[in-house]
Amino acid sequence: xxxxxxxxxxxxxxxxxxxHATAQGMAMFRVAWVSMDQAGAHSPVFAAFRTGLxxxxxxxxxxxxxxxxxxDGSTARLEQLLPEILRSRPEVIVVNGGIALxxxxxxxxxxxxxxSMSADPVLAGIVASYAHPGGNITGITLFAADLIGKRxxxxxxxxxxxxxxxxxANPAHPGALRELQASRDAASRLKLDLRFHPASNSAAIDAxxxxxxxxxxxxxxxxxxxxxLAQAQRIADFSRRNRIPTMAGWATFAQRGNLAAYGxxxxxxxxxxASYADxxxxxxxxxxxxxxxxxxxxxxxxxxxxxxLGLTVPRDLLxxxxxxxE
Length: 326
Prior knowledge:
Blueprint: E1 3-5, H1 11-23, E2 29-35, H2 44-55, E3 64-70, H3 75-87, E4 92-96, H4 98-106, E5 113-117, E6 137-141, H5 147-158, E7 164-169, H6 176-189, E8 193-198, H7 202-215, E9 219-222, H8 226-230, H9 232-242, E10 246-248, H10 251-255, E11 260-264, H11 266-281, E12 297-302, H12 303-308, H13 315-320, E13 323-325
Parallel strand pairs: 2-3, 2-4, 4-5, 5-6, 7-8, 7-9, 9-10, 10-11, 12-13
Antiparallel strand pairs: 1-3, 11-12
């Protein structure tokens, strides 16, 4: 499961390069990338992280080694891999998503850990505060309850006759209650009927979608987290089959067939994580690096899905889109 990335070159020459670089006094930076994704799957965020390090002068095989570890959708698998991850002696561990962070915390890993996660890290007990995380963990949170109102308003633009919205959310997700309250506030402002459908496992998703179909709700707002993302294709299929539009917070949802998504620009988030990794390599302590929030956002609209749902996307909304899927 340990696949070392040395710019597509063979391992032996690169080990030689690393030795030569060290001999010349260049500090080799070893990073562990830990993800719940499938091994070998294309990962735009991983590519963005590598780009961010390259932009800071690191050259894989000369001044940088990235060891990749894939959970294949299983936290149990990552827990099994953890001893091997630590034996690789990374200077920094970068976890892709809050779920992948779990095994690190359970094992009380002391290596600096950087995260990108959808939860509120303070509420989840991961850091002491945004400004002063403390400990060995910091990163970027995608949690932004204030964006929910904008997503709801966009749904109203897409569906002028919108009257009711179903909120599909994982109640076990740290911050879910705040997001639900933000959804209620936005629905109240827009005079919409709001119905909450909790789901934290596959059976609950099936039950929630069945309830939504039976109620003939006008649209679905998905509160995005790692669990919801794993269900993105299933929700998109449900949307087209029942002709109920869906809106989410991450571009991947729209790319997998849901109508629209508005939220953080993920590639920017992971390029920024690279800057944190660089600072730690140069001596900064994770506990002194504030937890950041996204500064760039993207609107992705799936026109293919819109046509399947019989919808016409307003021109002004299309002009705001950073990506339109034909």
